[in-house]
Amino acid sequence: MSSSDIFIGETIGTAVLILLGGGVCAAVTLKASKARNAGWLAIAFGWGFAVMTAVYISAPLSGAHLNPAVTLALAIKDGGWDNVPIYWAGQLLGAMIGATLVWVAYYGQFQAHLTDTEIVGEPAAKAVEAEEKGAGPVLGIFSTGPEVRNVVQNLATEIIGTVVLILAILTQGLNDKGNGLGTLGALITAFVVVSIGLSLGGPTGYAINPARDLGPRIVHALLPLPNKGGSDWSYAWIPVVGPLIGGAIAAGLYNVAFA
Fold this sequence. Notes:
Largest sheet: none
């Protein structure tokens, strides 16, 4: 694969991933959305199908890493580091594009939601509480956040979830060249993401992907959203560092136990 193929594939694939994944969060959260209050099950399956769609689209070009933790794990597994910066750049750019497209698709719903005096189904006091914590009422559409703020637990949750994801990819999901997800691997990974969301997503919202969290968080900070609140930068390092640690641990386990 050429550097341009990798960059284009990862940009397009990660954009689709965030468009569909962030889109289901917007659909469930925002006022005037037909899917409002559909719940956690819808979010978990929405993200799983987002992964599957993005992988099938981008795999022919880049191998469909779509996640800096996956790229890191494959580099550790095989010792190939040359293309890591290209993968990471495409993933971050794609995540920002996808988050922007969510805003475009739900523009009217964002306006209706954020210009009202209440968050969906909750009193305005909740919005004030969210503001005091540095997180606006729509930040959860763009990025993740903990239900209980405990640095050790939050970091551990992201590490554990990412280890499960990466081990599943390395043991069952790679294509014949071993440089990304294959056709069957895309389906396996989609259901693994659903499983992680249902089983381990409750504490932190299961970023398990640094680009998935950081790119949209940057977009949240930049977009002209009324009354959006802060972007919670004090927490932002956890969904970046945690998945990278988890990816490194998973690659090490794979090399010891499976290679």
